[in-house]
Specification:
The complex is a heterodimer of chains A (about 160) and B (about 575).
Chain A (H helix, E strand, L loop, with lengths): L1 H8 L18 H5 L10 H8 L9 H10 L6 H12 L9 H12 L5 H15 L9 H8 L5 H4 L5
Helix pairs in contact in A: 3-5, 5-8, 6-7
Chain B lengths: L3 H35 L22 H5 L28 H33 L6 H8 L8 H26 L4 H39 L6 H4 L1 H21 L6 H35 L5 H19 L26 H38 L15 E2 L2 H18 L6 H23 E2 L12 H24 L17 H10 L2 H10 L2 H45 L1
Parallel strand pairs in B: 1-2
Helix pairs in contact in B: 1-3, 1-12, 1-13, 3-14, 6-8, 6-9, 8-9, 11-12, 11-13, 12-14
The chains are: A mainly alpha (about 160), B mainly alpha (about 575).
Protein name (chain A): CIB3 protein
Keywords (chain A): Calcium, Magnesium, Metal-binding, Repeat
GO molecular function (chain A): calcium ion binding; magnesium ion binding
């Protein structure tokens, strides 16, 4: 079923027959216009994380990976791993203060003042950073997110 | 979008609506409907008919709006009800039902207010884990299921507001306080507030005295201001003093939620103080007049004497010792009436409620809507920027609205014993004001500058409501227990005290041993030890609940330290 969704995005590019593994990549604009993702402020990052070359153009495998991680059946740790990658804007395997600032601005559509944004980011680092290096590593993030009551409820796109 | 404190006001309003629906159900179903269906119809008894003198104007809109005329002589007010012990084929005991519904509405209100307070206290005690507050807000607040732009917009707005609330909490907790300066400023502010309260009380006293003087000299000599001076002064005080309190509270530098509570408390004290000064000044006046007016007992005798004389006049001059002559048919509208103070009291309450409702609606329309229209359209041709400077759009006044709601409910509780129609009027009023205020907030108000999270329990509002409930039921209870009901109207006419209907019912409708048991049980020797036992059990339960709360906190702390330890390992 997901294959037909993938195909419907660009019927002229995607062949029906996948037995010889054609190298078809759908550009980000098509993925970002899907109804599940088009209102999501993080859609660009989601596409980048799941695409092979990190630029948002997804093959069928990437597409299926994305939906499987976001489905109800994915285990919590797997979701936490991918969530970490989504919020890590500069791909350095740490969520640093600038990543946090970008996240906040995307969530509030730039309505908070710079001082407020800075305050929020400092508070987040204070709360979640256990090894005290000023940024969040994967372990810090996972430790914090598995206890969140809303994480599984909201980080979900059912098929 | 407007923050959780505005939302909490509307939740409170909705809860009040639920209570009023139930009160309405009780009064309508058990008092008004039986009397309308099974009681004697309009025009059959003197108390149910408009007197001949008033008949001409009884159907005018002005009279009906004032709740006299046909409205007064209907199931809406106390005076209409007949004192027959049972009515209709169902043998429905009307006076008993009236009494029990009156007592029952008060009892039910007490129960539900206290139950809600207890439930809120439980929720509060649970608390939540706030160790990752900001992190969770940042990483888990977006709902990935959102698929349409409008919902997305709302979600963005609510996330922004939620961040702002959390930021305010954080800023407040970080504020460095110069303790001595703050304490001095707070003492100063309280002193100023007390001065304002005392000043307003004195002003009211002075004005009422002046109006007595005017009345003695005849009201015709004075213009509109002197005639309505007392009402105007009370309304003006009610409008300006809260703003003054607002200015004073900026000295105090409290967390916004605590500042709101102080504000509410002060306005509450203002209204109570005004009311009491007003009543005291009135009492003075009544006592003055009462020296010249006979008390009710003598009035009663006078009216009864008049009635016998009038009856005699029907028999052409002779006053028969035993009326063996056939009764002459007289139109009930012509029979002279005794005074009916319960209906008058009920009418006053109904008029007060209606005028209060009108004032609220007009204030919303003018204060919010017209102001918004003015600011929006005249901004183009005005010297300074109307939207950011004065007057700009109005903010939603939480404290004013909450207090209005609570005082209004107090009026309903006070008056519903005398006017069974009050809960119905209130249901209608709450219904319309819910929608009107919702529309006004969305269209004409802007969110407050500093949004703050409302306390999760509404216990502060509940506590005020409980206090007002207690105060409002005092007058009704006093009249039930010590004042004889009017002899000529209402379901208790003819009895010396209203609660006698209970003893009468026990005598007639229950087997005799029941009456004896009741007699023993109401012996003071039994009741006093019972009260003592209840006080002791309250004390015991209070002590155990405190110890449970402390144990809870200890466990939470242990849990946190265990978690931190397991992470570092």
């Amino acid at each position: 079923r997901l294959f037909y969704r993938y195909r419907d995005l660009a019927p002229q590019l995607v062949p029906l027959d996948y037995t010889d593994k054609p190298n078809v990549r759908l550009p980000y604009e098509l993925i970002g216009s899907m109804p599940e993702l088009k209102d999501n402020p993080f859609r660009q990052r989601i596409a980048e994380v799941f695409s092979e070359d990190g630029d948002g153009n997804m093959t069928l495998d990437d597409f299926l990976d994305m939906f499987s991680v976001l489905s109800e059946m994915a285990p919590r740790d797997l979701k936490a791993y991918y969530a970490f990658k989504i919020y890590d804007f500069n791909n350095d395997d740490y969520i640093c203060k600038s990543d946090l600032e970008k996240t906040v601005n995307k969530l509030t559509r730039n309505e908070l003042t710079p001082e407020e944004v800075s305050l929020v980011c400092d508070k987040v680092i204070y709360e979640a950073d256990v090894d005290n290096d000023g940024k969040l590593s994967l372990e810090d993030f996972q430790h914090m997110i598995v206890r969140a009551p809303d994480f599984l409820r909201y980080y979900l796109i059912p098929n | 979008h407007f923050g959780s404190s505005v939302a909490s006001y509307f939740i409170f309003l909705r809860w009040m609506y639920g209570i009023n629906m139930i009160l309405f159900g009780l009064t309508f179903g058990l008092v008004m409907v039986p009397e309308a269906l099974m009681g004697k119809p309009y025009g059959s008894l003197p108390r149910k008919t408009v007197p001949r003198a008033e008949e001409a104007s009884a159907m005018n809109f002005a009279t009906l709006w004032d709740f006299s005329g046909f409205a007064q002589y209907s199931v809406l007010f106390y005076g209409y009800y007949n004192n027959q012990r049972t009515i209709g084929w169902l043998k429905f005991r009307m006076p008993l039902s009236y009494f029990l519904v009156g007592v029952g509405t008060i009892g039910y209100s007490f129960m539900i207010v206290i139950r809600t307070m207890a439930r809120n206290a439980n929720e509060d005690g649970g608390g939540d884990d706030t160790s990752f507050n900001f992190s969770w807000k940042m990483f888990t607040s977006w709902d990935y299921l959102i698929g349409n732009p409008e919902t997305a917009d709302n979600k963005f707005a609510s996330i922004t507001t939620s961040f702002k609330e959390a930021i305010v909490e954080e800023q407040e907790s970080r504020k460095e306080e110069n303790i001595h300066l703050t304490r001095f400023l707070r003492v100063l502010a309280n002193f100023l507030a007390l001065c304002t309260l005392a000043g307003s009380g004195y002003l009211i006293f002075f004005v009422v005295r002046r109006s007595q003087k005017f009345a003695l000299e005849g009201l015709e000599n004075y213009g509109w201001w002197e005639r309505n001076e007392v009402n105007m002064v009370m309304s003006l005080l009610g409008m300006f003093c809260p703003t003054l309190f607002d200015v004073i509270s900026s000295l105090e530098n409290y967390h916004p939620r605590i500042a709101l509570r102080w504000q509410l408390g002060r306005i509450f004290a203002l209204f109570l103080g005004n009311l009491y000064t007003f009543i005291i000044a009135l009492m003075d006046e009544i006592n003055l007049k009462a020296r010249y007016l006979p008390p009710f007992a003598i009035l009663e005798k006078i009216v009864k004497y008049n009635m016998t004389i009038w009856e005699a006049s029907l028999y052409n001059g002779t006053i028969p010792e035993n009326s063996t002559a056939p009764p002459i048919q007289v139109d009930p509208a012509d029979v002279p009436r005794g005074p009916c103070w319960e209906t008058m009291v009920g009418q006053e309450f109904v008029r007060l409620t209606v005028s209060d409702t009108m004032t609220t609606y007009i204030t919303i329309l003018i204060g919010d809507f017209l102001r918004a229209v003015f600011v929006r359209f005249f901004n183009y041709c005005w010297c300074w920027d109307l939207e950011y400077g004065f007057p700009s759009y109005s903010e939603f006044d939480i404290s004013g609205n909450v207090l209005g709601l609570i005082f209004n409910q107090g009026m309903i509780w006070m008056g519903s014993f005398y006017a069974p129609c009050l809960p119905a009027i209130n249901v209608f009023r709450l219904h319309t004001s819910m929608y009107l205020q919702c529309w006004a907030v969305m269209c004409c108000n802007v969110p407050q500058e500093r949004v703050f999270k409302a306390s999760r329990s509404n216990n502060f509002y509940m506590a005020m409501l409980l206090f007002i409930l207690f105060l409002s039921t005092l007058p009704a209870v006093y009249t039930i227990v010590s004042i004889p009901p009017s002899f000529d109207c209402g379901p208790f006419s003819g009895k010396t005290r209203m609660f006698e209907v209970i003893s009468e019912t026990l005598e007639h409708d229950f087997p005799s041993w029941f009456g004896k048991v009741f007699g023993y049980a109401s012996n003071p020797g039994l009741i006093l030890p019972f009260i003592l036992l209840m006080v002791l059990s309250i004390y015991y339960l209070n002590a155990t609940s405190k110890s449970y709360k402390e144990a809870n906190l200890e466990l939470k702390k242990k849990l946190q330290s265990v978690r931190k330890r397991e992470l570092l390992i």
